[in-house]
Amino acid sequence: xxxxxxxxxxxxxxxxxxxxxxxxxxxxxxxxxxxxxxxxxxxxxxxxxxxxxxxxxxxxxxxxxxxxxxxxxxxxxxxxxxxxxxxxxxxxxxxxxxxxxxxxxxxxxxxxxxxxxxxxxxxxxxxxxxxxxxxxxxxxxxxxxxxxxxxxxxxxxxxxxxxxxxxxxxxxxxxxxxxxxxxxxxxxxxxxxxxxxxxxxxxxxxxxxxxxxxxxxxxxxxxxxxxxxxxxxxxxxxxxxxxxxxxxxxxxxxxxxxxxxxxxxxxxxxxxxxxxxxxxxxxxxxxxxxxxxxxxxxxxxxxxxxxxxxxxxxxxxxxxxxxxxxxxxxxxxxxxxxxxxxxxxxxxxxxxxxxxxxxxxxxxxxxxxxxxxxxxxxxxxxxxxxxx
Amino acid sequence: xxxxxxxxxxxxxxxxxxxxxxxxxxxxxxxxxxxxxxxxxxxxxxxxxxxxxxxxxxxxxxxxxxxxxxxxxxxxxxxxxxxxxxxxxxxxxxxxxxxxxxxxxxxxxxxxxxxxxxxxxxxxxxxxxxxxxxxxxxxxxxxxxxxxxxxxxxxxxxxxxxxxxxxxxxxxxxxxxxxxxxxxxxxxxxxxxxxxxxxxxxxxxxxxxxxxxxxxxxxxxxxxxxxxxxxxxxxxxxxxxxxxxxxxxxxxxxxxxxxxxxxxxxxxxxxxxxxxxxxxxxxxxxxxxxxxxxxxxxxxxxxxxxxxxxxxxxxxxxxxxxxxxxxxxxxxxxxxxxxxxxxxxxxxxxxxxxxxxxxxxxxxxxxxxxxxxxxxxxxxxxxx
Lengths: 388, 384
Hints:
The complex is a heterodimer. Chain A contains 13 helices and twelve strands. Helices cover 51% and strands 20% of the residues of chain A.
C-alpha cells in the first residue's frame, strides 16, 4: 500500500518557510529556462511568418541578405518574365522589385541609434504580403516622399508617428501610415516607394525581388532556370526559408547562452532541493521508523520522499512558469547579427514550452530528491525508532 | 576566540548540508563572475578604442559609402593629421560560422593604430604584395594562419572568391587589444571593383581620422560634418570610442538580459543559503534558549548566527573566486574566438566578493531575529 499523497503534501506545508525558499530557488531557474525558450520561439515565429511559402525571393548569388544583394533592372525584367510567376487579376506579373537599405534611427527614450530596414516596394507588394495590414493613416502615394512604418518601429523609434518627418538622403520623408505585419519581421521595417527611394539613395539597381509563384510546385523549375540563365547572377529561395535562415545565428546564440545558464543555475537549485530533502529526512527519522513498523515497505518510503521532491519541483515549476507567462506582454528588440538591422520580437509561450519547462522542473526535483529518498528508504526500523 | 571556534563548529555540524551549500555558493559566485566577464567582453572593442581617432561615415547608415574625393577635403581641416580609408569586406572564410572582420584599408591605416605591432620586414612584404594581407595574432592562432598562406575568401558584398596572401601577423601591445581581424589593400579591392562594377568603385566605407589633440575631438568632428552638410553624402563623425559603443548599444537588450540574469543566480543561491540557515537555526532553537538561560544576550546569538552564515559564504565564495580564472579561460576556448578578449576584471572580482558577503548577511537576518526574540521557556520547549 502506498503512503497517501495528502500526507506527503502536508509535510511540505508543515515546513512552509523552507519549502517556499527552495521552491522559489527552483522557480527562478525555471523562469530563466522558460523565457529562453519563449524568446527563441518568438524569434522563430517572427521570421517564419515574415515569408510566404508561395513567394520566391531572388538575390545576388553569394549574398546572404537583401542588404548585400543587388539586381540590375534588366536582370529584374528577365526574372519577371519567367512563366512560373503568377499573374494578378489585371494581367500584371505579381512581383515586387525592392530596394532594401539600412538607416540609423534613434531609439525612443534614449539617444542610442540602431539600424532600421527601409524597404522600397513596388505597387503590388501588399498583394504579395497578405499579412501586412494598414492600421492607421493611409498608404504612401507612389511618386511622393511618403513612407509608412511598421508597428514595432512606431513603438520603438522616435520621430516615426504619423505626420512626423524623417530626414535622410537630402529629403524630408513624411510618415503617412502605420501598418501591422502580424508579428512578422516587417513590423520592424519602414516602407516607401521603390523608385523614390532609389532616386534618393542614388541607386541604379534593386536589392532583391519577390515573386508570387503561380503554382507552388513550379519552384524547382523556376530555381533551376534562374541558376542556369547566363544573363543572371541571381539565386532564388522560397521567401519563408530565406527569412527563417536569417534567424539562425541569433537563435543559436540565444539557445547556447540560455541553456548554459539554466544548466549552471539548475545545479544551484538542485542543491537547494537536496538540502531541503535531506533535512526533511533527518527531521523525520522517527516518523520513517514508525511508518516502516506499521508495515510500509522500503519502496513506499522511497516513493513517498521522491514524490515529495517532485511536488516541490512542480511547485517551483508552476510558480516560475506563471512569472514567465507574464513576459508575453513584453517584447524584445535587438540587432540581428546576420542582417545588421534591428529586429523586434515577442516572448511566445507554446504548449510545448509549458511541457518542457514542467518536465525540467520535475527533473530538478527528482535529481535533488533521489539521494535523500534513498537514504530514508535504507534506514533500519530499530535504529530510526530509537533515534526519535 | 572561543566564539570563533563555536561558530566554525556550528557551521560544520551538518557536514553534508554545509558542503552542499558551499558547492552551491561556489557555482553561483563563479556563474556571476563569468556573466559579468561576458558583459565586459562585449564592451572590449569600445574599451580598447581610442579617443584620439575619429570615424567619419555616411550619416544615413554604415551601409552607405562615402566618395573617395572626401579624403582630401577631410585632410584639409585644421587639426587633422592622417586620413585613412577602410571598407568592410564582409567575406566568408570556408563557411559562415568562421566569421571574422575583414577590412580593405589604405596603406597609412596601420600608422593610426600604434596598438597593433607589425614587424618591419613583414610590413614591407605586405606593402609590396598587391594581394597581401595582414592578420591579427588572435585570428592567426584560431585558424592556424601562417606567413605565406593563401586565404580564399568568398565575398558577400563584393562577389566572387578573393585570394589573399598572409604577409604579416600583427600583435596587440597588451592583452586587452582585439586582434581578431584581417586587413588588406584598399587599392586591390577598388581596382577589382572598377573592372566588375564601375559604379561601386571609388567608394570608401568610412574614414578613420587621426587628430593632433584629443581634446579638440568634438570641434574637429563638427567641422568635418559641416563641410559635407547638404551634400549628396552627408557625414557623421564621432570618436572611435563612441562609434564602437554605438555597435554595442544595438544589442543593448541582450546585455541588459545578461546583467539581470547574473543577479538571478545570486537570488537563487540566496534562497538556498537562507534555507540552510533557517533550518540550522530552527533545529537549534532549544540550544539558543539554553544559551539565553545561561545569560548570553540576543547580541551574542546574532553574532553566532551571522558568523556561521559568513563562514559558509566565505568558503563558498573563495572557491568560486579561485575557480573563476580557470573557468574563464576554458570558456574562452570553448567559445571559439567569439570573445577575443575575455579577462576577469578587478571590478568583477570585487563584485563577486560583495555578492558572497551580501548572501551571507541576508541569509542570517531572519534566523537571527527569531533567535534573538525567542522566549526562553518557548525555546526550551521547542523540538527541531
